Here is the input.
Amino acid sequence: MMHSIAQKEFVSTLRDKRFLVLSVLVLALLLAATLVGRASYQTQQRERQLAQHTVNDQFRRQPARHPHRVAHYGSFAFRPKSGLSLLDAGIDSYTGTAVYLEAHQQNSVNFSQAQQSGSLIRFGEMTVAFVLQMLVPLLIIFLCFGAFTQERETGTLQLLLSQGISLWQVAWGKILGYSRAVALVVAPALALAALLLFSGEEFASGPDLVARLGLFVLSYAVYFFLFIVGAVVVSARQASSRAALVTLLGLWILGCIILPKATANLGATLYPTVTKAQMDAAVHEEAQHGINGHDPQDQRSAALKAGLLKKYGVDSEEKLPVSVGGVLMTESEAYSAQVYQEHFAALNDTYRRQNRISDWVGLLNPYQAIRPLSMGLAGSDFAHYVHFQQAAEAYRYRLVQRLNALQTSMGHGDKERKLEASTWRQLPVFAYQSPTLGWAWPHLLLPVVALLLWAVGLSWLGLRLISTTPLV
Amino acid sequence: MMNTFWLLFSAEWRHFRAAKGLVLLCALLLLTGLYGIYYGTTEIERQRQHLAALPELTRRNVEELKVKFPGPADAGEIGYYHSTYAVHHPNAWASLSLGQRDVNPYYVKLRLLGLQNQLYATDNTNPMKVLSGNFDLAFVLVYLFPLLIIALSFNLLSSEREEGILTLLLAQPVRSSVVVGAKLAFRLAVVLGLAWLLSVVGMLWAQVPLDSRVVTWLGLSTLYCLFWFGVALVVTALQRTSAFNAVTLLGVWLLLVVLVPSLLNLGVAAAHPVPQGIELTIKQREEIHAGWDRPKAQTMNRFFALYPQWRDTATIRERFVWRWYYAFQHLGDVAVAPQAAAYATGLQQRYDLVEQLNLLSPAINAQGSLNALAGTDLPTHLQFQRSATAYHDALRAFYYPYLFRQAEFSHHDYALEPTHTFTSQPELSTALRGLGKLLLSVALVYGLGFGLLRARPISPR
Here is the structure.
């Protein structure tokens, strides 16, 4: 009986012109978003690869230079797009694409898409995730708001129940039927996305991508299931179709538009961000004055020089086998890098605290659970971004210290000399390895738990509520 | 006739008071609007505080330099270690419509070095936060007010028809247009009352000056609300069920507020591919660092071609001298000037295209006009960048005599250094154009609505 109800809902949904129009529209948007996502992935990835290639090439082809000159010349790290970002661009449009890596300082990641788009981008970006997270739930609402109210308004509910079937079975039958209809809309787009991902040469497909895509599909399945159950429950508890529709739309607006904005802004108010100017000044202050603050740079370098003379048992700088400048550079780089790291860690910590509020609200609002989960799986969330930042900094530090070591080994009088051009070809270039799902997993735990709690809670509590719903 | 109108109007008022849900909804929107004002003003206040802290950072920097160089110094050293700021102050209206002020940096830290790689440095921002966007009064007006209007008027006549009251009502000697008119007028009064109340509270809170912008803001928000009532009128004129109306109205909202903007964004980006700013930085780095390896005379001759006034200065024989260093820094900027111009024009062209196409969506138009009024959108940011560029020119002009005439830089010279300030101005013409376009959209929907009503008079069933 439950299956025949499911079949009936499925068939009547397909016959409903309104639903047909809406689902064709949503499907078209999904397919378009997939193709647009792929196109923009390709352009951006190509641009970044080309740029990374260009700067690496430029680095290798440098003329004979003093190593510290090369350290200032520096390099760039471009953030590669993750394959799944064609489905969910996450924060990619709001983070920069490139960071300049140079001696003595850590720079911010500049040139974001958002700065190039004017205020249009603030209305939302047309990505697969956008359609899945915001529009499909609307489709579900339009599909399910009359699940019970219409039957009640036309008196067919009592007829059904007189056949000896329970309300509980009616509800599950409807949920199953609607689920099939929604799957019919969403599945083709996701299948196309999977096809693009696994057939395109530009994507490094592997077990990690398969796992991420699988979980991606699974989480959205749970998310849609939630909305279907929720809409059926609301429909059962409301007196009229109109009331059910208005309630559901109200919840959608609250969950998908108002709450995410409000929590993000609340986070920024509660944990204020330090400006770049303030941070730079603080870093400069600490790097200048050292840990105890009473040991200015000149005195420190004098002590260092004395230590070197003693170590090598010589009485003048000229006799040292190493360059004092190089040793000094190495020391100061180690120190300033540590100061920068502390400040960047504190800044990222502030951001994390700001974002955590939104993550916890995911327990109240499924949209705020699926959003971080989806981005996290697509590799376009804040944690993945920080991973890139840290990889770029680790490379910068190693590069600068290698160059400082080269300078040190040049011995006294290094400033007047240069190292030959072939030296730069032996230095490693920046290559970014994006993290695996295993690494990302801890960041996704909270949204996963929130989503599962919702699914289980709604199924259990909602259907209990349905059982006690008034029949007329 | 007038009496019937007021009778119906007051009947609506009684209905409205009785319908707790609607009162609750209005109260909720009022609170949301107040939060929007609170958020916008505190955000701008925070930006003001950040800007106010910058002179102190500069002062501390100068103090440090005075210790580092106790006597007269080489101006080259000062130019290298000394940093000042180009600042973009918000005007009072920015609190009501934050626009792009959270994405685009509102100050630029400048040293005497090449400008281009300093100009684009972004401030610390949480990408998750900017992704979610600002919750300011403009957001409430542009995004949420249409939803309130939809909630109030999706069942304008359909509910009465569904409850069977419409037959009774139309059996009376009343014209159906008066019935629709009175119902719309009542809802319009509620919504506009709310919009004006919030706007006035916002203006008082943000302490805006009393000038033509007050009228423009009110005009924009009124016309925008009127537009959405027009859409409701068109849907009412179709005379379908409440559920159909709700779905249709929400579909229109989704189309105009969500879909058209995001599709337009894609289209505009495709129509005007902006040369990636990164190319510019890479090229500039090449140019500047090659400066170290080039013969000094070559660099200086290229520089003197641009600044002939320094041609007669001493020939450089030293291994390193600051004026040569700053000359090749500047030549790095000159080398990428075409790219920098192309980048800025590309952005401006995107903006202009949106300006032309925003007739497609009154939401984009309203948001754009409010941002223009508040001076928080792209053209203002580009103006600020030009102003920062001019400031960098002024700094160079200040330091060049010290460098080329080899004059000593003494402690009292710090105070002579030029400073920068820029306050965003409203783009009234853009806002007024937006007002005109909104008027056009309003005329269009009301024309359509009344036309439909005339073609098919309201039937009781």
